Amino acid sequence: MAVDSAGDVFVIGLFQGKLALDAAKVLDAGKGTDAFLAKLDGKKGDHIWSFNFGGDGVAQGLGVATDSSGDVYLAATFNQSVTVHGNKITSTGGQDVLIGSADGFKGTYRWAQRYGGKNNEYVRGLAVNSKGSLFIGGHFSTKTNLGGKDLFDTGGNDIFVASYESGTGKHRWSSRYGGKNSDRVTGLIADAQRVYVASVFVGETEIWGKTYPSNGGSDLLLFALTDAGGWSWGSIYGGTGNDEFNALTLGGGGLLAAGWYTTYFPFISGKPLPKPAGKSNGFIANFSKGAGKHHWSQALPSGGPAGEVSGTAMASNGKSWAVWGQFDKLINLQLKGGTTWSVTSAGTDCFVMGHSP
User: Fold this and answer.
1) In which band, very low, low, confident or very high, does the pLDDT at 64 lie, cut at 50, 70 and 90?
2) Which residues are bridge partners to 329 per DSSP?
3) When you count CB atoms within 10 A of the terminal residue's CB, does the N or C end of the chain come out lower?
4) What are the angstrom distances between the C-alpha of 324 and each of 229, 259, 314?
């Protein structure tokens, strides 16, 4: 989801069969699974425009962003072939990446590009900055091409970050990072100076010639590259169990991240997060943009031996922020004034938690 300067909302996803966004606009995927992009009125939720794209296989919309001029950008994956505004695009094998742009006011097609190799690629982040640079992040196996030179993994899944000109989709730069095990991008955001990437790795990972060892299980790597693709900084976080970033956004005077962890969680600075009473706790954390310095963090605690909590998405207008996620059995949220908000669930429920200064 993305929100433009007028407060209108862009949503992206996938569907089968028919999707009715209002009485006059019904999207039809035919016999396949199509991706869709829609613009909704930010105050009333009314449908403004929408379109779908798909083909012989499965297409899924995974990322959307908008710039200050009102144009909208999308990231998707597809296999076999996909038709975007009458232009048929064919995969080179497996699941490929599709990025594209549309006029944000009318929804008219601007451009679309396909990238990938013979195996599968996955997109897990899309952002555009005020300089007109478009960024994507994800992971791949074996070999891929994102518009520049071929990229090769070092074992398991490796992550990629790539940049394009937002006006044309022309490739600017692309790079890969990772170790011998599994690496995944879980969040990406950008400003005029840098692109910030949240990722998860197992064992150890390598980025820009530096090796980062895991503390145990899966750990978190937060790093930044310059607008031109150069190295800026990187930091790892995690305990002896499994830990994961799920979301990353700009806010709180820096970067805001959300995710989950399974054991005692020591950030580099500040008070360590407590060991979960259940299977996992969620967390939110704040870092500086200039060096990735940890400012503060807060647990979203579970309750009971079977409890699970995960922060899955974040949004911010710069000062205020909100986190939403899911929990199973019991969640205990610490609110202002020292009060605790405790809620139980019969299955898996969602929650939203907001903060304003």
Assistant:
1) very high
2) none
3) C
4) 31, 10, 6
